[in-house]
Amino acid sequence: GENVEQHPSTLSVQEGDSAVIKCTYSDSASNYFPWYKQELGKGPQLIIDIRSNVGEKKDQRIAVTLNKTAKHFSLHITETQPEDSAVYFCAAMDTGRRALTFGSGTRLQVQP
Amino acid sequence: DAGVIQSPRHEVTEMGQEVTLRCKPISGHNSLFWYRQTMMRGLELLIYFNNNVPIDDSGMPEDRFSAKMPNASFSTLKIQPSEPRDSAVYFCASSLTSGSPTDTQYFGPGTRLTVL
Fold this sequence. Notes:
The complex is a heterodimer. In chain A, strands 2, 4, 5, 9, 10 and 11 form a six-stranded mixed beta sheet that branches. A five-stranded antiparallel beta sheet of chain A has the order 1-3-8-7-6, with no helix packed on it. Chain A starts with a strand and ends with a strand. By secondary structure, chain A is an all-beta fold. In chain A, about 0% of the residues lie in helices and about 60% in strands. By secondary structure, chain B is mostly beta strands. Chain B has strands spanning about 5, 10-15, 20-25, 30-40, 40-50, 55, 65-70, 75-80, 90-95, 105, 110-115. Chain B is globular. The model of chain B has no long low-confidence stretch (mean pLDDT about 95). Chains A and B meet through strand 4, strand 5 and strand 10 of A and strand 5 of B.
């Protein structure tokens, strides 16, 4: 099955700085990589996703990059704001189960 | 749209008791997922349904866990008997297209289960 590793587990940045979260996956056939944001007391919510036919995708202050050769993908948040503080999960498609496998999460804290 | 609805939001029970968690997916969604979230193991997929049919239950930890989806608008996750190690937040999620694992999953608010 798919194995997804996520780093770092915690990340603290100053408001306005950039934040980068990295994930690696094991299933070379995986072709879908979403990122979810979980705020305190809530369920995860999709913020951006990327498919294997592109190397980069951007949505305002959020971007995701994918390196299929190295089997890793990253989330980039620019101009961070206090409301970006949350736990972020990467995920990858387990092609065997046809379901998502999630990383262990990164707690991002943006200091005002 | 009300989103995915889960009940109860919090459940405290004693070891050995039966626990039933409930989920109402978003209307019109054809896939439903049950996840468990713990500090140690993160977010784990327990089971998912397509068109009310269980497709993959390989994540269900043991026979004490069972899930049903009697119709398109309701699912239950039952633990019998419950044990302290079952304490976790249980999430239900739904997505629009049956059999399309790349569809966006919409998560409910979760049920925080504490087994004493």
